[in-house]
Specification:
Blueprint: H1 4-10, H2 23-32, H3 37-52, H4 70-85, H5 93-104, H6 113-120, H7 123-139, H8 147-158, E1 170-172, E2 178-180
Helix pairs in contact: 1-3, 4-5, 5-6
């Protein structure tokens, strides 16, 4: 029913060490037994007065409570650790794209954007941009409105794309056999 911190506002000496009950038992009694009406009204007045005189420091737009975002931050930290452990030849593209999606969120305009990034850039280049972003965040040099867009622009600007093997194009003939299409040279004529 009550918190012991609220009871201490009205009864600062609620605990008696010379009593035969332990501290926890006395606390349980104070928290669970109803108070007289006068004391209950005093508690409400004190809590209302405290709510009116709240001082907020810092920017309201950029701060958030760590308790509310604990699970969100935990998954982001796990995604960063998994990206740092990934190897170019052993980690699948789908895993890298999934971790990037956890880290930066889904891009509404381009839903397959993180798969494109995972295909065309190595985990080493992805990690170097993430480390640079973490350093900027620690220094407090720049708050990012859209970290995914910033990540993509830095990645494209400073890191070369992975060289993908050329794909062969096949057609199926009437006989049901695949034949490779020969691309014509533009300079042939």
């Amino acid at each position: 029913m009550y918190l012991i911190t609220d009871i201490e506002k009205i009864y600062p000496n609620w605990y008696r060490p010379d009593h035969e009950l332990s501290r926890h038992e006395q606390q349980w009694i104070w928290e669970n037994l109803p108070l007289p009406d006068e004391d209950e009204q005093r508690l409400k007045q004190i809590s209302n007065a405290k709510n009116e005189n709240v001082i907020v420091s810092g920017s309201v737009n950029s701060t958030c409570k760590p308790k509310e975002n604990y699970e969100k931050n935990l998954t982001k930290n796990e995604a960063i650790v998994n990206l740092q452990r990934s190897k170019a030849d052993k980690t699948s593209i789908k895993d890298i794209a999934c971790w990037l999606k956890h880290l930066f969120g889904i891009w509404q305009e381009k839903p397959s954007h993180w798969i494109f990034i995972a295909e065309h850039y190595t985990p080493k280049s992805i990690n170097s941009v993430i480390n640079e972003m973490q350093k900027r965040k620690e220094r407090g040099s720049m708050p990012l409105d859209k970290p995914g867009a910033y990540f993509t622009s830095v990645l494209r600007q400073y890191h070369p794309q992975r060289k993908l093997p050329k794909r062969k194009h096949f057609i199926v003939t009437n006989g049901g056999q695949k034949q490779e299409i020969q691309k014509e040279d533009k300079n042939a004529f």
